């Protein structure tokens, strides 16, 4: 079973291949991905590495956490599961819906800003 690792505080120069090569020395890397900004195409400064098993992942975490890469101390730990997003309104398949706050606006969405 593969184990997913979060790698944070990465320099913007790090690519998927450099991330993979840094972790490959500890064992089998299934995938390595640096998260990129959709608008600018620039790195967001963090990424994820999937390793073959828990033992290999723990060895990589112990060795690489706090290591300096291009003058930045990187953060390496087990990735947490993605949290559920709360519905904050917006456009969906059923149409536009306002946020769930009842204390703002006219009640069911639309225009307005304060309490009336």
From TrEMBL:
InterPro entries: Nucleotide-bd_a/b_plait_sf, RBD_domain_sf, RRM2_NsCP33-like, RRM_dom, SLIRP/GR-RBP-like. Pfam families: RRM_1. One of its GO terms (molecular function) is RNA binding. This is RNA-binding protein. The lineage of its organism: Bacteria, Pseudomonadati, Pseudomonadota, Betaproteobacteria, Burkholderiales.
């Amino acid at each position: 079973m593969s184990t997913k690792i979060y790698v944070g505080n990465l320099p913007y120069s790090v690519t998927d291949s450099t991330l993979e090569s840094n972790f490959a020395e500890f064992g089998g890397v299934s995938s390595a991905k640096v998260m990129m900004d959709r608008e600018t195409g620039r790195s967001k400064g963090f990424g994820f590495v999937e390793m073959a098993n828990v033992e290999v992942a723990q060895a990589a975490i112990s060795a690489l956490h706090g290591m300096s890469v291009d003058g930045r101390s990187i953060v390496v730990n087990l990735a947490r599961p993605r949290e559920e997003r709360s519905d904050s309104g917006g456009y969906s398949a059923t149409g536009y819906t306002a946020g769930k706050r009842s204390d703002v606006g006219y009640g069911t969405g639309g225009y307005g800003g304060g309490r009336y």
